[in-house]
Amino acid sequence: MKENLITSDTNNDENMRENILFKDVKKMRCIKYLNLFFSIFRAVLELYLFTYFTIFPYSIDGSFFLIILLIYSSLFLPIFSLLNLKDVVSGIFTGNFHISKNVENIFDCIGYNCCGNCCTNNVTSSTYSNLIYSLLTFIWSFYLLYFFLKDYNLYLQYSQKKVFLNNYLKKVLLKIILYFIDSFSLLLQSYFFYFHDYFLRKGQIYIEFYKRLIIKNREEDAELVRKQLPRNIKDFTIHSEQEMQNIAV
Q1: DSSP label at 236?
Q2: Its pTM surpasses 0.85
């Protein structure tokens, strides 16, 4: 009777750990394709925003800060969006996503980007890069919004130019909304890359999980796990043997 209880508890613990791993595997599969969707969406959005290149609030000033943000929004942001799309497509279809041991925080990422050392398909640096671009785009959006509100007050005062200002302000407002959408999309992609980084850092656990599923003749489940891992599975780290015991099944 006691042995049956012990066996039952062991099986329950094993099933629970297996469910935890499968939950992350399925989440990783969804996140990969969500990341692809948002990468394509953002690339199209940047092309559309380019058609609004000359649309700015009338009251916007010509400060140095504006020039920097203008260069950022018209040059760096579109280039980053296309490179981001290339990395996501390449990572998904060639299975060559990898993690970085040199980039551990946002300051490391800034340093590596400034020095041109940030490797492609690196989910660690992509996490922080998308976060940085999200924050910069938020700033740009609020900057435009501030001058838009000044223009709107001007529009209310000059009714004789009502039609012209109304049409133009609609275009300015649309541009601002699109930049806000872009900043939220970048923030989401930062989370997608963060989870990818988290998943790959536990790669050794999932490799062991994959092997055990093969042993159990659960080839379909094993294939699902294997598809979420890169083709090159040699460079994985694990934090401790205890973690391996706690999570692996």
Answers
A1: -
A2: no
Residues paired with residue 122 on neighbouring β-strands, in sequence order: 98
Which token pair is 154?
A: 């001007």
Q: How far apart are CA 182 and CA 85, in angstroms?
A: 14
Dihedral, 202, 208, 209, 212 alpha carbons, nearest 10: 180
Q: Quick one: how far is CA 220 from the chain centroid? A: 29
From residue 102, alpha-carbon distances to 96, 118, 123, 139, 198 in Å are: 18, 10, 12, 28, 15
Residue 102's pLDDT is what?
60
Half-sphere exposure of 61 (CA within 13 A, CB side): 5
- pLDDT digit string (tens) for 117-172? 455 678 888 898 999 999 999 999 999 999 998 888 877 776 555 555 678 888 99
31, 192 contact by CB (below 8 A): yes
Give the pLDDT confidence score for residue 91 in this predicted structure. 86
Q: How confident is the model at residue 5 (pLDDT cuts 50, 70, 90)?
A: very low
From the CA atom positions of the chain, what is the Rg in Å?
24
Interatomic CA distance for residues 49 and 21, integer angstroms: 41
Do 55 and 171 touch, CB atoms closer than 8 A?
A: yes
Q: How far is CA 230 from CA 62, 90, 93, 196, 227, in A?
A: 48, 11, 10, 11, 8
Instruction: For residue 98, list its beta bridge partners.
Output: 122
Residue closest to 133 by CA, chosen among 64, 87, 177, 187: 187
121: left (phi over 0), alpha (psi -120 to 50) or beta: left
